[in-house]
Design goal:
By secondary structure, this protein is mainly α. The protein folds into 2 domains: about 250 residues, Orthogonal Bundle (Cytochrome Bc1 Complex, Chain D, domain 2); about 190 residues, Cytochrome c-like domain (Cytochrome Bc1 Complex, Chain D, domain 2), CATH 1.10.760.10. Helix content is about 35%, strand content about 0%. The longest helix has about 35 residues. The N terminus and C terminus are likely disordered. The structure holds heme C (2 copies). One heme C binds next to helix 11. The site of one heme C has 25 residues, from helix 11.
Length: about 500
């Protein structure tokens, strides 16, 4: 049905590729204002609001650190809006990107000296987790402290809008309130990538610094110090507030790098460009993915070109799917602990919204086949399992949820009963236990085949492919991508 969209015009392709590089300067300008607002909000809040990374909640289970640290402790250097920073040197985007890349891989910034952003957000796994652990371990000590959520990929996050409770899409039905949308992290609680960046640096179960001053001290002593001075000026590390802003700015700009974070180099992108044909299984999978009566996946994981932009496979909406509780997360050993997403406890500003409990942000499905754990709690370890959950959740709940002492299935066991009505029941969900699944086993296998077309080509291959012409290109891409998938499949 949507195959017509494959006939993308050259103009659209140019726009799609042009869009991302345009974002960097746009971001630098636009966020200047936004950031001033964010900083003053933080100050008014008593500066204790955690940003996007998981911070031990007040009701933290025993395995999590007992006291919630404040993000901007009193000993922190005075906050200074980023773009108000008057650096001695004005680095360009390329310089910031290269510095940000180095800092992203710099373990000296962590309290343990062993953890960098890349330890959890591995470039070889689409900046997602490098292993099959539901949550990664961080912290200052030798033994480590477990996180509370699966590590998301950082790819294709560039256009994430700031969190809003009421989102109106200016495309199509603009009168319809789409509900909570956007923001960084699984619960949208960070407004931007730079607000996001400070959280892992300070979270006790991630890079575990006490405060910003400690981060700046480590930065000044790290192998990256020279590069920071070269980029921002010889005195940048003498002023802690300035040094902090330099650090998070470089990290943010790196994460906007189209080559690394938004290459649009998957087989599906080439299919949209009219450069290759999908295999029969992939094409069937795409149809099921889009079909409103079958997978209906595209209703949340957008799959078609909109206003010239290639699809990101998310509408950024926050939805409750009722995924099963994951006993592998240490925090979950405490029966009274629930990660309720939007309504807390990691996020603190929407606790009164009972109707938001259980909602998490719809992730992009680009590069999803490179993951070894799925959903916010990393409870599923195979892609076909994640897809089958959609088909079977309501018609075969006994295959997904544990039973209570009386043998009754404890449906939606990761949500207190009061919030079960928040769980989404639109297709592919719905149907009574024992009923007919919206997707057959064949459909599931086909959707998995399709999802594997969303894996980007390795950077070298993508660059080479840009130089060659279509027919040969398609073959190179196919083999490169399937080699990656095969490697990942073997790893699972
Ligand atoms: C110990 C593992 C770990 C480390 C180290 C880590 N992160 Fe994360 N990151 C996570 C987890 C877990 C989440 C999801 C947090 C949540 O939803 O509460 C996340 C979320 C994010 C997000 C939001 C992505 C989205 O989909 O909205 C960004 C951006 C990010 N991290 C950047 C960074 C940067 C930059 C660094 C280094 C300064 C870093 N992370 C270090 C585990 C880590
Ligand atoms: C109503 C919106 C909605 C629909 C329809 C939907 N999804 Fe999702 N999807 C989500 C949300 C929200 C999450 C994250 C939920 C969570 O972690 O609790 C998610 C997560 C996923 C994940 C895990 C990704 C990751 O990074 O861990 C996969 C895989 C996935 N969806 C595939 C599909 C497929 C395939 C379909 C169609 C059969 C589909 N989705 C239909 C909203 C939706």
């Amino acid at each position: 049905m949507r195959e017509g969209k494959a006939a993308v015009t050259g103009v659209l392709q140019v726009l799609a590729t042009a869009l991302v590089p345009m974002l960097v300067p746009m971001l630098l300008l636009a966020l200047a204002t936004l950031h001033v607002r964010a900083v003053s909000a933080a100050v008014h809040d008593g500066a204790a609001r955690p940003a996007a990374h998981a911070i031990a909640p007040a009701s933290a289970p025993s395995s999590a650190p007992s006291s919630a640290p404040s993000i901007v402790p009193s000993s922190a250097p005075a906050t200074q809006p980023f773009y108000a920073s008057t650096f001695e040197r004005k680095p360009d985007t390329a310089q910031l990107t290269e510095l940000g890349r180095a800092l992203f891989h710099e373990p000296a910034l962590s309290a343990s000296g062993r953890l960098s952003c890349a330890s959890c957000h591995d470039p070889a796994h689409a900046y997602g987790p490098p292993n099959g652990r539901a949550v990664q371990w961080g912290g200052a000590g030798a033994h480590g402290v477990p996180g509370l959520r699966a590590v998301p990929s950082l790819m294709y996050r560039q256009t994430t809008p700031p969190f809003s409770e009421h989102f109106f899409d200016n495309d199509g039905n603009d009168a319809e309130d789409q509900g909570p949308t956007g923001g960084y992290a699984w619960d949208g609680r960070a407004g931007s990538a730079h607000e996001q960046a400070q959280a892992p640096l300070l979270s006790p179960f991630e890079m575990a610094n006490r405060d910003r001053s400690e981060v700046v001290k480590r930065l000044a002593q790290s192998p990256s110090a020279a590069a920071v001075r070269t980029t921002f000026g010889p005195h940048v590390l003498d002023d802690p507030a300035m040094a902090w802003n330099a650090l998070v700015l470089a990290l943010e700009v790196f994460q906007q790098s189209p080559r690394d974070f938004a290459p649009f180099s998957s087989r599906y992108d080439d299919y949209l460009r009219g450069k290759l044909t999908l295999s029969p299984a992939e094409a069937r999978g795409l149809r099921v993915f889009n079909d409103a009566t079958k997978g209906n996946c595209a209703s949340c994981h957008i799959s078609d070109v909109k206003r010239g932009a290639f699809p990101l496979f998310t509408d950024m909406g926050h939805i409750a799917l009722g995924v099963p509780r994951n006993p592998a997360i240490p925090a979950n050993r405490q029966a009274s602990w629930y990660d309720l997403g939007l309504c807390g406890p990691l996020r603190e500003d929407l606790k009164q919204h009972a109707d938001y409990c259980g909602r998490f942000k719809t992730p992009s499905l680009r590069n999803v086949a490179t993951r070894q754990v799925f959903f916010h709690n990393g409870g599923m370890t195979r892609l076909d399992q994640a897809v089958r959950f959609y088909a079977e959740r309501d018609v075969h709940p006994e295959r997904w949820y544990p039973k209570d002492a009386k043998g009754r299935v404890r449906t939606f066991d990761d949500l207190p009963a009061a919030y079960h009505s928040n769980v989404n029941r639109e297709p592919p969900f719905g149907g009574a236990p024992g009923g007919h699944a919206a997707m057959s086993e064949q459909d599931i296998a086909d959707v998995v085949a399709f999802l594997k077309t969303l894996t980007d080509a390795p950077i070298g291959v993508a660059a080479k492919r840009a130089q060659t012409k279509s027919a040969t290109t398609a073959t190179t891409a196919t083999s490169a991508t399937s080699a990656t998938s095969a490697k990942n499949a073997a790893a699972r």
